[in-house]
Design a protein that fits this description.
The chain crosses the membrane at residues 46-66. By secondary structure, the protein is of the alpha/beta class. The chain has helices spanning 16-28, 52-68, 83-91, 101-125, 141-150, 189-201, 203-206, 249-263, 284-299, 314-318, 335-342, 367-375, 385-396, 408-416, 420-425, 438-448, and strands at residues 4-8, 34-38, 131-133, 154-159, 163-167, 227-231, 267-271, 305-308, 326-330, 345-349, 362-364, 450-452. It is 40% helix and 12% strand. Helix 3 (83-91) crosses helix 4.
Length: 453
């Protein structure tokens, strides 16, 4: 049988060797034989891959920015692929681009060049490759992945919170995979409530990716008629994973939100993501985010804003507020699910894990819509508890997701005799661990991949 080409990254990240072995087994069980080939962009001849699409994409992007401005570039697409979102997500990986407009533009020019070349490479490779896994598709490699999907290449995708999936479908993109409503209605309400109550009371031990133990400290509740709790997120990580909603990333959204609420006389409580304080984490993202967070606090220290500048339990925070005059505002954060479960009104972006698939609170679709909802209707919304429960069933209690026992890293941790939290906090440990029954572990991981047709 002919061996089909499988494009992969050189194995340098912890755990990728396990994944590639499991993917080989998954495909063998479907009747395919594969030959791995490493993807090394620097090995490609720049001149060889230049063609009309390189110039069309690059100069089309430059013209777009000239006419509409760089902050709208995430809406730029080329031949059906959301090029702009992948390029700007790569630009914003550099934390300084959030704070330095000149650096933002220089970095943009560089990433646009790279993205244009990668598109041309992907177009050529799609005729040679049968399968691929490039690990993190929220940045420039997303261009390659979407190009492969449009050309019937079988692609393994890392999704959140549904684990690793296998897709071979010409009519989809990565973004489409975030819109799957699972409908796991067999999970009873009592199980949802047990999970959510544990999550609220003990988030560190209930959420695998929580890297710090939250603590309770006193804070001042604004003495205003209405209060908004605004939750911050990572300023650098996968900024357009769930799409584009009119904002150039979380930093722009956050500052815009604070300004509009203060203009309207709303008392603002600003809560940082707990992982901002994960000083011992291996993830540089946490360190970068903390630096930007400090700038935000400094900019508004003399304004009518109460910062929660420490990792505080969300339940402890909300227990000090009244549901009737409080609105929880987040771009795409899980605290809104927790708050809605408790009965609080919420407002979030269409570019979120629930999007418009789970309507437990208000959603905004663009900047003008967002401003209008901040001023009015979001404050009078009713919480749809059924939608909250359905989201928790489908996502948090998904056995294949990050909290599930069938998530590939959970399997590795169990086989290695460590906790998933230990592995998540220090991913490099995967290079050192030894598993006695390696074949059995690979088989379990291969069975955890879900095929989406």
């Amino acid at each position: 049988m002919e061996r089909l080409s499988f494009l992969k990254l050189p194995i340098s990240l912890g755990g990728l060797s396990y994944l590639y072995d499991a993917m080989r087994l998954f495909l063998e069980n479907k009747g395919y034989k594969v030959k791995f080939r490493n993807f090394r962009p620097k090995k490609y001849s720049f001149i060889k891959f230049l063609d009309v699409d390189f110039y069309g994409l690059f100069f089309g992007g430059m013209i777009f920015v000239f006419k509409k401005g760089i902050r709208k570039f995430p809406s730029y697409s080329y031949k059906g692929i959301r090029i702009g979102q992948y390029i700007m997500a790569s630009v914003l990986r550099d934390p300084k681009t959030n704070l330095d407009e000149n650096l933002l533009r220089r970095k943009f020019f560089k990433e646009l060049l790279k993205g244009s070349l990668l598109y041309c490479i992907a177009k050529r490779e799609s005729a040679r490759v049968s399968f691929a896994y490039l690990h993190d598709g929220h940045y420039l490699y997303g261009i390659i992945i979407d190009c492969f999907l449009r050309n019937d290449v079988g692609v393994f995708l890392k999704t959140s919170p549904d684990g690793i999936i296998f897709v071979k479908n010409e009519n989809c993109s990565q973004k489409d995979m975030n819109k799957i409503r699972d409908n796991r209605n067999e999970i009873p309400d009592s199980e949802v409530e047990r999970y959510m109550n544990n999550r609220l009371s003990d988030p560190y031990n209930s959420i695998p990716y929580m890297k710090v133990i939250e603590r309770e400290e006193n804070f001042i509740v604004p003495e205003t008629e209405y209060i908004a709790v605004v939750y911050s997120h990572s300023f650098t990580d996968a900024q357009f994973e769930f799409g584009y909603d009119g904002f150039l990333g979380v930093y722009e959204w956050l500052t815009y939100t604070i300004e509009k609420l203060l203009e309207n006389g709303i008392g603002v409580i600003l809560k940082g993501h707990p992982n901002f304080w994960a000083g011992e984490s291996e993830a540089k993202i946490d360190q970068w985010d903390y630096l930007i967070w400090g700038k935000v606090i400094e900019n508004y220290k003399d304004k009518n804003l109460i910062p929660i500048d420490w990792p505080m339990n969300n339940f402890s925070l909300l227990s000090k507020l009244e549901q009737g005059n409080t609105l929880l505002v987040s771009h795409h954060g899980n605290p809104l699910v927790e708050g809605a479960y408790l009965g609080f009104k919420t407002l979030s972006s269409i570019a979120s894990p629930w999007a418009d698939q789970y309507k437990f609170g208000h959603i905004w679709y663009g900047r003008e819509d967002y401003e209008n909802k901040l001023k009015g209707e979001a404050w009078w919304a009713e919480v749809n508890q059924k939608e909250v429960y359905d989201f928790v069933r489908d996502k948090y209690l998904n056995p294949y997701g990050k909290s599930g026992e069938l998530f590939w890293q959970s399997i590795v941790a169990r086989k290695a005799g460590i906790t998933y939290k230990e592995l998540n906090k220090s991913p490099s440990i995967m290079k050192k661990i030894k598993v006695k029954d390696y074949g059995n572990m690979i088989e379990e991981i291969s069975k955890s991949f879900q095929e989406i047709r």
